[in-house]
Write a structure and sequence with these properties.
Oligomer: heterodimer
Distance between the termini of chain B: 7 Å
Radius of gyration of chain B: 17 Å
Helix content of chain B: 55-70%
Mean pLDDT of chain A: 74
Low-confidence stretches of chain A: 50-61
Strand content of chain A: under 5%
Largest interface: A-B, 30 and 46 residues
Strand content of chain B: under 5%
Shape of chain A: rod-shaped
Distance between the termini of chain A: 127 Å
CATH superfamily of chain B: PhyR, sigma-like (SL) domain
Helix content of chain A: 40-55%
Largest sheet of chain A: none
CATH class of chain B: Mainly Alpha
Number of domains of chain B: 1
Number of strands of chain A: 0
Structural class of chain B: mainly alpha
Radius of gyration of chain A: 40 Å
CATH architecture of chain B: Up-down Bundle
Mean pLDDT of chain B: 83
């Protein structure tokens, strides 16, 4: 007579079970395989679904646009902040900001120079 | 040991069960975003209903009964609308766990509704047989038989993915809960 494998479910579910019946079920190689497979099945059912292909349908174009805009803003903002925080290069003279033209011939004689 | 509770408010129920409900609805619908919406719907219905004063296990059963109804309503509405079939995810990029997740999702869809619900309430919702009996209006003995049958059927259908996962290392799951 084949053992009653339902006791394996009882054991897994932390419900009342007869140890003798569980022993008989697990003495059988099929029973042991069932126990391992049920544990794997439980693990698979409880693990977060990493695939969920249907959930990709919820990636609407508006979400993608929003994500792209957020990345762009972050990049530009990061560049600006970095640009401002870089101090002036003290090893080189500053670039000319304006050129002052002086007409030496028009300086009056009585200025004392 | 069970505790007799005074009728809790919807907020405390939400705090206690939202995670388990979300996981159950996520598996029942196969879509996490939809599950979030449905879990809100469950608590909306709860907030409009007089929450019974009951043993804690009966309260969980009562709450998941509402969740089952919400999931069933969703499936009915879904059948009226055409579905977008995106096809299988790209081959060669999935590991054993991902293969199993996809295969399990498909296998669950082939189970009779009640067997699937009983299996998910036990394995994902973490309900005891007594709680499942309340949620599904069955006797605990019927729940026992259905859980075992569902496991055997899934095992038969998922031989390949189960064997692949048996070669991997299984991490402990943080939300495994022993029934009261």
């Amino acid at each position: 007579m084949s053992p009653n494998y339902e006791v394996i479910s009882d054991f897994l579910d932390a419900e009342a079970f007869e140890p003798r019946a569980l022993g008989e079920a697990l003495a059988d190689p099929v029973g042991r395989e069932i126990l391992i497979d049920f544990v794997v099945l439980r693990y698979a059912a409880q693990a977060d679904d990493p695939v969920a292909p249907e959930s990709r349908a919820h990636w609407r174009p508006s979400r993608l646009l929003f994500a792209a805009a957020a990345v762009l803003v972050a990049l530009i903002g990061g560049y600006e902040v970095g640009h401002r925080q870089v101090g002036p290069d003290l090893t080189r003279p500053p670039a000319a900001a304006r050129v002052v033209a002086v007409d030496w011939h028009s300086v009056p004689e009585e200025s004392g120079r | 040991m069970t505790h007799v509770t005074s009728a809790p408010d919807a907020e405390s129920l939400f705090a206690q069960y939202s995670g388990r409900l979300l996981r159950y609805l996520s598996r029942a619908t196969g879509e996490r975003e939809v599950a979030r919406d449905l879990s809100q719907e469950v608590f909306l219905r709860v907030s409009r209903t007089a929450i019974p004063t009951a043993h804690e296990n009966q309260l969980a059963g009562w709450l998941f009964k509402i969740a089952r109804n919400v999931a069933r309503d969703h499936h009915r509405q879904r059948r009226r609308r055409p579905e977008t079939d995106l096809g299988p995810a790209s081959e060669g990029t999935r590991d054993a766990q991902q293969e199993m997740a996809l295969a399990l999702k498909q296998a669950l869809a082939t189970l009779p509704d009640l067997d699937r619900d009983v299996f998910l309430l036990r394995e994902v919702g973490g309900l005891s047989r007594e709680e499942i009996a309340t949620a599904c209006e069955l006797t605990p003995d019927a729940v026992r038989s259905r859980i075992h049958r569902a496991r055997l059927e899934l095992r038969a259908v998922l031989t390949g993915p189960i064997n692949a996962l048996r070669q991997a290392r299984i991490r402990p799951l943080p939300h495994t809960r022993a029934p009261r």
